[in-house]
Amino acid sequence: MAFKPVLDNGVYLRDSVQTAAKILVVGHFAVGKTTFISTMSEIPPLRTEEVMTQASAGVDDLKGTPGKTTTTVAMDFGRLTLSEKLVLYLFGTPGQQRFVQVWEDMSRGALGALVLVDPDRLEESFPVMDLVEHYGIPYAIAVNRFGDTSHHSDKEIREALDLLPETPLVNCDARDQRSSANSLITLVRYLQSRLN
Amino acid sequence: MTTPDDPELELEAAPLVRAYVITNGRSLPADDEFSLITLVTAAQDMPPTGQLDPEKRRLLDLCSGGYLAVAEIAGHTELPVGVVKLLLSDLTQAGYLYTRAPVPPAKLVDRRILEEVLHGLQARFG
User: Fold this and answer.
1) How far apart (Å, rounded) are the C-alpha atoms in residues A80 and A135?
2) CATH label of the domain that carries residue A133
3) Which candidate from B20, B39, B117 shows the least CB-CB separation from A82?
4) How close does chain A come to B14, measured CA to CA in Å?
5) Which residues of chain A are within 8 Å of residue B20 when distances are taken between CB atoms?
6) Considering the domain boundaries, does residue A28 fall inside one?
7) What ipTM score was computed for the predicted complex, to two decimals?
8) Which CATH number fits domain B27-125: 1.25.40, 3.30.420, 1.10.10, 3.90.550?
9) What single-letter DSSP state applies at residue B67?
10) Minimal-distance CA residue of chain A relative to B100
11) Cβ contact (<8 Å) for B105 and A185?
């Protein structure tokens, strides 16, 4: 039986694409994750919702704890076809501890993470960095300098975030494609260097 | 007995209850079966679809245009990821879908993949 595709052709991947890879774009609320993904994605960014309690919960449970199972976490993501055979997905992941379930799902199979930080609100990045480190995801820091009023030097930011000397730190304007791409390239180079 | 596509039921059902009904209350598949970036498309030569429920038909329609990642299917249908994984798992087992698994975790540090990602980014944005 023939089905009619319900979306435009540009939405689908090329038939030749065999492999999908994933990089996480993480950071605290309103740090610019969605902007970054919109800037880089070849498709309009999409949103998925992860329900925090298993859908297998019985009907009694639904009655007993009204609202409990409606807790959802939204994740924005985008797509970049990088070669005939390879597609890269960028997933924006919220940095709150209470979304640990989502983190387990997200971190599995991720090449690495780009941690977006706002130089005016460095301390808000601590929980997300704890999560990235907890899940053993290699990461680079991208300082979203848009609207920066702090004028912290890179060195000051490195110290405040207690970065290891090898952890890359780049400045980035999440609205700018070249700048955002450069921060991804920095992350991938770092991932390569870890193999040596 | 109301049918699942009864508009009244649709109106009354809260999103989560609806998700629960769609999955017949079964537990979600093991996480490693479908990841967010498993690629899925409709099979060329699929079994008859007459018995499929509306949600599964909707997913097949969406998948008939080419490959999409599981996360994209969830995004386009606005269904929770867990529910989409379960429905896709059913459809795959019944022969309606083909899948292309993502890079296996053991190969994530594969030099070739990182090189391909790097070259792709440089070619596009360098």
Assistant:
1) 25
2) 3.40.50.300
3) B117
4) 9
5) 55, 57, 59, 62
6) yes
7) 0.84
8) 1.10.10
9) B
10) A18
11) no
Which residue is associated with the tokens 């924006």? Answer: A92
Task: Give pLDDT tens digits for A102-130.
Answer: 788 788 889 999 999 999 999 999 999 99
Structure tokens given for A123: 């301390």
Q: Find the domain containing A121 and state its range.
A: 17-54+69-193
Q: What's residue A151's pLDDT?
A: 83
* CB within 8 Å: B69 and A188: no
**Nearest CB partner across the interface for A192, out of B16, B108, B114:** B114
Beta bridge partners of A144: A172
Q: Does A111 touch chain B (CB under 8 A)?
A: yes
Q: Is A58 on the interface with B (CB under 8 A)?
A: yes
B-chain residues within 8 Å CB-CB of A15?
Answer: 66-67
CA distance B30 to B11: 31
Specify the pLDDT at position A58: 44
HEC assignment per residue over chain A = CCCCCCCCHHHCECCCCCEEEEEEEEECCCCCHHHHHHHHCCCCCEEEEEECCCCCCCHHHHHHCCCHHHCEEEEEEEEEECCCCEEEEEEEEECCHHHHHHHHHHHCCEEEEEEEECHHHHHHHHHHHHHHHHCCCCEEEEEECCCCCCCCCHHHHHHHHCCCCCCCEEEECCCCHHHHHHHHHHHHHHHHHCCC
